[in-house]
């Protein structure tokens, strides 16, 4: 029941600005540990070992701190522990914020303010946005929603149902590590190796569940669920990550659009594999459609996990 209440709380208030979010705290810990470890790791091999230490320390500290906090709360009063459990799980979910962020891009496009739309998109993507047209701004927003259905909603919900707040925070710590150091570039190739692999492992099951749920959501919302299933099966492995394309492929199929393609990062072009057949040209309306799919998928995940927990 804690996860259900946490989900409802997330839908109601999202992530208020200035709130001491656990992810921000984890991010500071990662930055501090990285700066310490880099002082002693001078070779590639040492950096890879340091990466395992960084990963292990971060997720262990996150899990242990949450467990101890809940234990202390339980000693004070069981209701306090329950409330704290709900509150911590709530911070791990990003349903409302994901919809709100993409919705703000749509609103700017609906007003015809492409400059503002580019600016708002830049808050939620890592690609260059300063020269994007309406179609590519829309594509960026849709890709963000589709990819983060798993990372920001289904995966933390999945682990919260299995192990409560401590395991949900464990997952968020791993996800934060991957977003900070899990890059395949010269700076993080060795240091981020362990974090990237842990993130791949933890997202393996949730990413696939997400793809299935998106197909069901497409059916319930009246989108092209047959094509969603077809594209999901065909294109879900067209990414360097074994997990990232599952949600995007299912959404692309449901909306009969094509995601992926050419992006620019720090002025350099990068062509990503395309997902979907592109029967329809991408428009701002597809952003709204992807948000609807995201909300329905999150609800389906809640129902499926709740029933699964009750049957165990």
From TrEMBL:
GO cellular component: plasma membrane
UniProt topology in membrane: Multi-pass membrane protein
Keywords assigned: Cell membrane, Cobalamin biosynthesis, Membrane, Transmembrane, Transmembrane helix
TM region(s), chain numbering: 49-73, 153-171, 201-223, 291-308
GO process terms (BP): cobalamin biosynthetic process
The keyword Transmembrane belongs to this UniProt entry's keyword annotation: yes
Transcription listed as a keyword: no
Pathway(s) of this molecule: Cofactor biosynthesis; adenosylcobalamin biosynthesis
Protein's cellular compartments: Cell membrane
Function of the protein: Converts cobyric acid to cobinamide by the addition of aminopropanol on the F carboxylic group.
Similarity section: Belongs to the CobD/CbiB family.
Stated name of the protein: Cobalamin biosynthesis protein CobD
């Amino acid at each position: 029941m804690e996860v259900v209440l946490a989900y409802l709380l997330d839908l109601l208030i999202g992530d208020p600005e200035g709130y001491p979010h656990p992810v921000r705290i984890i991010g500071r810990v990662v930055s501090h540990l990285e700066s310490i470890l880099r002082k002693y790791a001078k070779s590639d091999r040492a950096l890879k070992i340091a990466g395992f230490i960084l990963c292990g320390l971060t997720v262990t500290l996150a899990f242990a701190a949450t467990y101890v906090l809940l234990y202390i709360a339980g000693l004070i009063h069981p209701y306090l522990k329950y409330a704290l459990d709900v509150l911590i799980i709530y911070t791990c979910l990003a349903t409302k914020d994901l919809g709100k962020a993409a919705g703000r891009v749509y609103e700017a496009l609906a007003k015809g303010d492409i400059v503002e739309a580019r600016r708002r998109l830049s808050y939620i993507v890592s690609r260059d946005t300063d020269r994007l047209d309406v179609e590519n701004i829309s594509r960026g927003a849709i890709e963000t929603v589709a990819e983060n259905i798993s990372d920001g909603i289904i995966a933390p919900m999945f682990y919260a149902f299995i192990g409560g707040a401590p395991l949900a925070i464990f997952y968020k710590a791993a996800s934060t590590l991957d977003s900070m150091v899990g890059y395949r570039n010269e700076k993080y190739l060795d240091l981020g190796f362990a974090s990237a692999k842990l993130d791949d492992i933890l997202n393996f099951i949730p990413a696939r569940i997400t793809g299935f749920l998106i197909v069901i959501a497409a059916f319930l919302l009246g989108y092209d669920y047959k094509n969603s299933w077809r594209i999901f099966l065909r294109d879900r492995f067209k990414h360097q990550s074994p997990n990232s394309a599952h949600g995007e492929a299912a959404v692309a199929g449901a909306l009969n659009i094509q995601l992926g393609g050419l992006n620019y990062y720090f002025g350099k072009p990068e062509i990503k594999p395309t997902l979907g057949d592109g029967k329809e040209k991408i428009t701002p309306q597809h952003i709204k459609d992807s948000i609807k799919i995201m909300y329905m998928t999150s609800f389906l995940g809640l129902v499926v996990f709740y029933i699964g927990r009750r049957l165990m």
